Amino acid sequence: MSESLGSAVPLSTTEPRPAAAQRVLPLRHPGRWIASAIVLVVVAQIVHGLATNPFFQWDRFQYWFLRPTILDGLLITLEVTLYSAVLGLLVGILLALARLSESPVLRAVSWVYIWLFRSVPLIVVLLFLYNFSALYKTLSLGVPFGPAFFTFDESRLATDMVVAVVGLSLNEAAYAAEVVRGGILSVDQGQHEAASALGLPKGYQFTRIVFPQALRSITPNYVNQLIGLIKGTSLVFYVSLLDLFGSVQSMGSTYPGDIVPLLLVATAWYLILTSVVSVVQFYVERYYSRGALRSLPPTPLQKVRTGLRDLRARVRKEAAI
């Protein structure tokens, strides 16, 4: 028995190749390459059409892009967006807290406000405010059904800028309230219970524990609202405020042959503004993701450096083989 085992011939006499000499072949994805090639062809066709079609008049686009009239309208767009975003967010936070409060009156008023301004189109709100002086020529502050302490002329107060900012803020607050409320509800209930168990004041619980965690959910959703607000400012043209879109419309009426390049100028500036907001969104989300993720997501520059480093390592490996 022992002799038969000792005389057994091994099945394979070849020595295994060292691990360093073994080459791992990557998994092939022919469908992915075909789809990528089709997409590149379509994109190339679109770019070629944009660059060679004389209908777009790129020389006139270059002429109008940095004209003072366009830049003045762009500045008004930025001002309206900034004021409306800040006021809308502040009012939205108050509405969200009222919606989550234990007072039935606050909950009811907040719900009605959100329901009303989410139902009425923004252009209707702006036009209503623009003609508000026809309904109330003077506004007063005092005791209901009693004497008035302060009275002032509404037409002097409601300038075109004020009407635009108030209208956009009222509309924005309704959507911001739901975004903030959803972010607060996304915070784990255990965080509220732990803060209450420590005896922390309600205001401290909200500002230091609940709201910072809610911002992880609020930020991406509210940035979507902010991008919509930037585009929504184009409606203030109907209340006689010449923002970016209003300036383009005005110049298009004066120079009808340049309507297309003027619209392209407005499109390019809106793309730039929304791109800047998206970049800011990335870094804000990255900041508030600390503590929730083991490692922070890489920045675009870090991704480029990592890609170049991996490419150099792959080239050196191919050359060594």
From TrEMBL:
Q: Which GO terms describe its cellular component?
A: ATP-binding cassette (ABC) transporter complex
UniProt keyword terms in alphabetical order: Amino-acid transport, Cell membrane, Membrane, Transmembrane, Transmembrane helix, Transport
Q: Where in the cell is it found?
A: Cell membrane
Q: Name one GO molecular function term.
A: transmembrane transporter activity
Q: Which InterPro entries match?
A: AA_ABC_transptr_permease_3TM (IPR010065), ArtM/GltK/GlnP/TcyL/YhdX-like (IPR043429), MetI-like (IPR000515), MetI-like_sf (IPR035906)
Sequence similarity:
Belongs to the binding-protein-dependent transport system permease family.
- Write the protein's name: Putative amino acid ABC transporter, permease protein
